[in-house]
Amino acid sequence: AVLWVRPRPEARMQARRLAALLGCGSAVSVLVVLQHVDLIPRRSILMTFEESLALLSGPLLLAYVRGALNIAQPRPVVYLPCLVYCGVALVANNWLHRQVNVALVILVQLSFTMAASHAVWKYRKTLPRHLQLGGIAWPIGTMLSVHLAQFVRLLWPDVGVTENIVPLTLSIAFLVLQV
After folding, report:
1. CA distance 16 to 101
2. Which residues in 32-64 are b (16+ Cβ under 10 Å) and which e?
3. Under 8 Å CB-to-CB from 34, ≥6 apart: which residues?
4. pTM (two decimals)
5. pLDDT band at 99; cut points 50, 70, 90
6. What angle do CA 162, 163, 165 make, to 5 degrees?
7. Whole-number mean pLDDT of the chain?
8. Residue 61 above 90 pLDDT?
9. Total Cβ atoms within 10 A of residue 71
10. Which of 2, 57, 143, 178 is deepest in the core (most CB within 10 A)?
11. Pairwise CA distance, residues 21 & 25, whole Å
């Protein structure tokens, strides 16, 4: 009962990592939908914030997976792409009146998903059974499905059905988490 009320510090940190990852996904999903219904202009500080959160989700996924595997956390330098993007996007949007190519954001995200997948593959024999399906497979599977949705969106940007495919994919992943 004491562990239930006062979980170990590692368990609290894992819960915070997962909450941060879910928070990023939720915020990104809402901001993308708001932009698609023209409530947020394409060149706005909120869209820079959305893409920064999308970039932040990669290191958060990696930190969550490494924490679940009980291996060393990634160095703080993994958060650098998000910070660099914020600076570059603010300069590009506000002063150069250009947008940063979203495909680069997706490639950086994908690299973090691959790093998390590699960590799971490398330590798969020591992975507790209860983590194999829900604890680690869900976040990595969600990110992989989001990447697939992003690529579909990039390949067919003018097809109306694909406009909200990324937020829809995230919504389905959140529903699966609830089941």
Report:
1. 31
2. bbebeeeebeeeeeebbbbbbbbbbbbbbbbbb
3. 40, 46
4. 0.84
5. low
6. 60
7. 82
8. yes
9. 13
10. 57
11. 6
3-state secondary structure of 44: coil
CA–CA separation, 84 vs 108, rounded Å?
A: 12
Tokens 């059974």 sit on residue: 129
Cβ-contact 57, 21 below 8 angstroms: yes
Q: Please report the sign of the dihedral spanned by the C-alpha atoms of residue 174, residue 2, residue 68, residue 85.
A: positive
Of the pLDDT bands very low, low, confident and very high (cuts 50, 70, 90), residue 134 is low
Average the pLDDT over 116-120 and give the result. 91
Q: Distance between CA atoms of 44 and 94, rounded to whole angstroms? A: 9
Torsion of CA 80, 177, 161, 20, to 10 degrees: -20
Q: Tokens at residue 117, please?
A: 């997948």
Burial of 24 (0-12, 13-18, 19+ CB in 10 A): buried
Q: What is the DSSP letter of 40?
A: S
pLDDT over 70 percentage in the chain = 85
Query: What three-state secondary structure class fits 42?
Result: coil
Lowest mean pLDDT among 56-65, 99-108, 112-121, 140-149: 99-108
